[in-house]
């Protein structure tokens, strides 16, 4: 029954991390600017907070799960050395 949880990928690569961080910053910045302007127009600070909260939720949905777009550049690990090579070093 727990096999479904072990089959879910939980990693992203370094390029994917950079992509996710750029996307997160762009979404939060955009929503904060829009929220500030809209809150100023309607003179309601709560509207600014709601818009920023919506941006946070959107950014979390798009950046926290390990979507396939964040796993396109896997690391190429080196092959392990044999025990004979380790003892001669």
Automatic annotation (TrEMBL):
Gene Ontology BP terms: protein targeting to ER; signal peptide processing
Presence of keyword Membrane: yes
Coiled-coil features, chain-numbered ranges: none
Cellular compartments annotated: Endoplasmic reticulum membrane
GO cellular component: signal peptidase complex
Principal subcellular localisation of the protein: endoplasmic reticulum
Pfam family, one: SPC12
Membrane-spanning ranges: 23-42, 49-67
Source taxon at top rank: Eukaryota
Membrane protein topology class: Multi-pass membrane protein
Record key words, sorted: Endoplasmic reticulum, Membrane, Transmembrane, Transmembrane helix
Family, per entry: Belongs to the SPCS1 family.
Protein name, UniProt field: Signal peptidase complex subunit 1
